[in-house]
Amino acid sequence: EELATRIGYATTTIRRVETDELRPSKVLAEKLADVLDLPSDERADFVRFARGEPSTGLPLPQRLAGPGGRSPAPSPTPSLPPVPPAMRHNLPVQLSSFIGRKKEGEIVRQMLRQPDVRLLTLTGPGGTGKTRLALQVAADVLDDFPDGVYFVDLAPVTVPDDIVSAISQTLDVREQGGRLLIDILKAYLRGKCLLLLLDNFEQIVAVAPHVAELLAHAPGIKILVTSRIALHVRGEHEYAVPPLALPDLKRLPPLERLTQYEAIRLFIERAEAVTNNFSVTNENAPAIAEICHRLDGLPLAIELAAARSRLFSPQAMLGRLERRLKILTDGPRDLPARQQTLHRTIAWSYDLLTDTEKTLFRRLAVFVGGFTLDAVEQVIGEGVGEVIDGVSSLVEKSLLRRMEQPGGDMRFSMLETLLEFAVERLLESGETDALRRQHAQYFLNLAEQASLHWQGTQPRRWVEQLEQEYDNLLAVFRRAHENGNAALMLRLAGALDWFWFYKGQSSEVVQWVQKALALPNAAVPTPERARTLQSLGTLAYWRGDFMPARLSLEASIVTWRQVGNSLGLAETLAYISRVAWDQGDYPVGEKYALEALHLYEELGNRWGVAGARQGLGLIALGLGQTQQARTMFEECLATYRLDGNQLLLGLALLNMGRTFIVEGEYQMARPWIEESLATVRRIKNVLGIYMAAHELGFAVLPAGEVDFAYSLHLEALLMARDIGAIAGLCACLVGLAQVAAARRQLEQAACLLAAIHTGCSVLGAPLTPSNRVEYERTVAAVQRAMSESQYNQAWAEGQAMTVEEAVQYALATGDLE
């Protein structure tokens, strides 16, 4: 082990030399002679002896003496049996199994076997498993190369010109007189059919033309290279080695299938190797999957983590991975030092960068979840040269990933393991605070710019841009909260109000908005505070938390009045009128909607006027005044068709369809709701899709389209569940109860109807008019079809269910799977 460390070779290689399993290359023998400090007159004989060549008979040095201090007698060169041509190679024996990479191995083999592919470079960041993949492929194609397959480790080569020497020594090509070694090597390779595997090329990439020169003079050879950067010579083919396959954390498959994922299999096998009693179970499998995700599917990182299984359970290890570079240490000692910890592996790549590239790399750590070139140019600042060139260079060196977005835009990101290293370098630089301020300003500007366009004809384009930057936006919230910057948090929350409506809210968003409002300096009446209270109210509303929603919106109204902002006040009044409508409080809802209408008319805001009239139309619908409601919705449609706002158009179309549902005119309702669903699907609005799909389910069932109705209600239910819309779940259960009744699954229908009744009581909100009408019709039909005792028993079972339990029951019962 000491010899291996001192000369930079793997311990397994030295062990095989010591046990006569492997004859060392000339370069290895000479390095051993250097380390053993042999006298100059004995070095040549030592190298010949090590290589198994005829000896001059000179005694070996005393320090190599056997027991008793006596030197062994000179021995003749052992007579080695001839090696079959198909086995001529120096590929190191791998002491651990090769897991996964079936697809990648097949791709590389196919590429290597193509006649026009003579130089193939496997690229990827440190720890991706490039060398292991290359060695496996090289072993698989031995029969394709009659003159052999030879592995050349270039990691110890630090002087670029030494590459020719390293290749020559591996092939046992010797200097002759005054001829250049590269000419001798070219002459040797001419006429040969062999494969050279050049490993770790990145630190000497400047001499890549030598590789091209060898290929040009030896048409029968091929070269397989591993490098963190492509060679960029003519004829090169590149294959970027991807991370290992990972499961979807949101929908983990059953244990049997989960363990077939490459990353999971690697972790399990390596953990079993260090812990006799290790086993994967339903309890620890989710933690193993998340560990592999956090380690980006990098084989080296996963192996280092698995080695810690002797100390931590997967669950305990997961809790320590916030600082993954600190825990992923102590790799196998027979690995090169740079691969014994993940930190050293990344540092190897970082140290090869120029100073300008190092500056850019560490500054990019200010971003979370990726970035665009525009963001880099505006946030990073001066001192990094031309941004496009710098980013391109880091991509080529496998330190950044490039992701093409819809429309051809480019986005870039770092693997999480690389990002943690970059954050360390950024914190050391003293640039962190300034960069975070610039980062926050950039994304605040982006959010506020986007908020000006949501009423336009293409809000989806802005939604998609903010979705891509969601992690960066949340990072601004988090950092602002750490610094107690309430003004920034409130301003950003207000700018994103419309975006959360499009996206579908989440509990994470609610928590950040609440944190912003709770800061001591957030209590001063400002437009930002009023807007944030409005955001919190609308988020609570869409989740079905009607009372908290109403309280937040009422507080927003008070604040808007204090700061004298008529537009903000009108928007919040329109929102709270909708909450009152959902609660069945129609007189209060009408009061708020009328005040909003008056303010919008004074401001000359056509869009606002249409929105207020839509609220008044819903109030009329709740009161059973369907014709008055249709008149209001028709006026809204005229405005939205003219303005081109697809979301508001889709909702107005839906409301028109609802008026016919309430009247029982399903054929007339259907085209309105179908157009609504098509409209919101085009802009991928989750809230709009779940509401329209649900209402369309009501419209198609009377025509006998039971399966279609079920698929629509099921889609709506799953979407409502994903975004946490509890009131929406109650509505969707009405549709599924109808389908169960149509299929004569009467007990299931009765259970669901009872659970809906209980759920609405708990939420403190009745069903919306169309849902209420369909609910009452279904209750009556089920009661007629069942005996009183059967109905009462099923009803009692349903009453004991929560809304969430009723959803699970609906999904698990009979044909409703």
What does the model show?
By secondary structure, the chain is mostly helical. The strands form two sheets. A five-stranded parallel beta sheet has the order 2-3-4-1-5, sandwiched between helices. Helix 17 packs across helix 19 (387-396) and helix 21 packs parallel to helix 24 (486-495).
Helix content: 55-70%
Specify the overall morphology: elongated
Number of strands: 7
Strand percent estimate: under 5%
Q: How many separate helices?
A: 41
Strand order of the largest sheet: 2-3-4-1-5
Distance between the termini: 60 Å
Rg from C-alpha positions? 35 Å
Mean pLDDT: 84
Note poorly predicted spans. 55-87, 331-335
Protein structure class:
mainly alpha
Task: Explain briefly what this protein structure is.
This protein is mainly alpha-helical and 817 residues long.
Keywords:
817 residues; mainly alpha; two-stranded antiparallel ribbon
Topology:
Elements: H1 2-7, H2 11-18, H3 26-35, H4 40-51, H5 102-113, E1 119-123, H6 130-140, E2 149-153, H7 162-171, H8 181-189, E3 195-199, H9 208-217, E4 222-227, E5 236-240, H10 255-258, H11 262-274, H12 285-294, H13 299-307, H14 314-320, H15 324-327, H16 342-351, H17 355-363, H18 373-379, H19 387-396, E6 401-404, E7 410-413, H20 416-429, H21 432-451, H22 459-468, H23 470-482, H24 486-495, H25 497-503, H26 507-518, H27 527-542, H28 546-563, H29 566-582, H30 586-603, H31 606-622, H32 626-643, H33 646-663, H34 666-682, H35 686-700, H36 706-723, H37 726-742, H38 746-763, H39 769-785, H40 788-799, H41 803-812
Parallel strand pairs: 1-4, 1-5, 2-3, 3-4
Antiparallel strand pairs: 6-7
Helix pairs in contact: 3-4, 5-6, 8-9, 11-13, 12-14, 17-19, 21-23, 21-24, 23-24, 24-26, 24-27, 25-27, 26-27, 27-28, 27-29, 28-29, 29-30, 29-31, 30-31, 31-32, 31-33, 32-33, 33-34, 33-35, 33-39, 34-35, 35-36, 35-37, 36-37, 37-38, 37-39, 37-41, 38-39, 38-40, 38-41
